[in-house]
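ok trying again, last paste got cut off:
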Amino acid sequence: MKMNQYYNAISKLWDDVVEMNEGHKLVNVFQDRIEGIQ
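nice, full thing came through this time. structure:
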């Protein structure tokens, strides 16, 4: 993934990542999904 693609993906998902981080110990961000591990 090129840096501009990464930036665009993270920009769209960042609020969801922060919200998921509150209840999970680890949050993995993939191109097509977000995964939270407790």
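cool. The chain has a mean pLDDT of 92. Residues 3-37 form one domain.
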